């Protein structure tokens, strides 16, 4: 406690101007984040308040069952989530599984309860101040520590259950300090009287039947108040002379012309504004000939709420700009539209369009005939070949199981040949064309391995094992590395091929196989236990380590018997027994 108090040396000022405020600017205070625009006390609602021009935003704090500080007003999960119970009686990890947005409508599904430290970071990044309404008693020390750690000491005030805050840090202030809170209808004379008392004046337009009283807000500003407190920040911004529409107009102008990076940044910033119907602008920018601008617009359309129907991308699919076609295909794939809308693009002559189309098809439901995908598996461009493998695995898994492995072998042979030629030439500095060729084959292989890992038809596991347990430190070794990782959750009850791979003279292969068997879980242990009696010392040692790391209690008897007879592994066996005993559940 004393340590925290000693750290809090800076005074809080009730109305110290924000860094982005002009002298004399009327402050806009937002009650409980932008609660009428976005589900309250979420990170998204806090950002919306900042985007709409709020200088000060109130948030509510509670402590979870495991001591995390989160944003939540009344603690009752039934109101603000799809769960039941109370915040204080729920673990944070449990809360993260609750939807904290769907209660306010379909468009907000997927929002989550927010950690206090994340809110602090966003407030610092957006240059706003916070009023912390503490709902759980006795959490002042944790709250103050987080405020200090995130560099927000000078930018917060307190309300609610903050008695312990005052004891720990007497210099802390509340929103009411040196401030007169008045109701709508305040006169200029009344405001002047408070100013003569050296008080700031805030007119309240929250929870008093004046929440949407724009005329009253403007009258209060005209009377000379220093700030207005609102539930509808967009109205408040208009009242204080900083209408949001002006900011949007400036961003639209920036997005229309100038440097590509500036235009793209403006579009992405516009996409953060919720409740503004900018879709027609985003559709227009999607058709732009600049790939970065077009992609930013595609992202903006995907983020738009309510979600955009597939038809908004139809014009871009037929654009003369290949980047617009590619970005539209990507966006449609992300929306999960039916695959039929993209089938015409499989005849496109541009490799980038083909690649994005095939990647999208891999995510989309619908029927895609193998006949239109198989020729693309041997297309001249490696990016197209890799994407075709994914689309084939998604829509025609049996055809994929037959066609992808031989094509992957060709890719590997080419990659190995390129690597050997590079070594033979003495590892010279590569030209851009040479670099592109090498990385193209690498990317293609990664997508083909990913496609194989998607397959759930008979024989698919064996194909993946062939890749995982292929020895060699050639330029195609990453195929095996990635395949091994994929086997962690697939190896199941038949771990014998993996156990056999423990004997490989390729040390890297044996190492990653050993760790795969550690991570694969108890299903593999019957086969691993058999390897404890292997005549191959390397396999035996690895099996001992695997059962130890897995904490396999059923192996203790075998290990103890080995201790009595083994002359080569006594230290390792003793360590394994101790490791398993340390993990054994106590009676």
Describe the overall structure.
There is one protein chain. Helix 6 (140-149) links the parallel strand 4 (129-134) and strand 5. With 587 residues, the chain is α/β, with parallel strands linked by helices. The longest helix is centred in the last third of the chain and has 28 residues, at 397-424. Strands 1, 2, 3, 4, 5, 6, 7 and 8 form an 8-stranded mixed β-sheet that branches. It is built from 29 helices and 8 strands. Helix 9 packs parallel to helix 10 (233-239) and helix 13 (279-286) packs antiparallel against helix 14.
List keywords for this structure.
587 residues; alpha/beta
Short description:
By secondary structure, the chain is an alpha/beta fold.
Q: Can you count the beta strands?
A: 8
Cα-to-Cα separation, first versus last residue = 39 Å
Backbone structural class: alpha/beta
- Which stretches of 5+ consecutive residues score pLDDT under 50? 1-21
Number of helices: 29
What portion of the residues fall into strands of 2 or more residues? Answer: 5-15%
Largest sheet: 8 strands, mixed
How does the overall form come out from the CA principal axes? globular
Percentage of helical residues?
40-55%
**If you average the pLDDT, what whole number results?**
92
Q: Give Rg in angstroms.
A: 31 Å
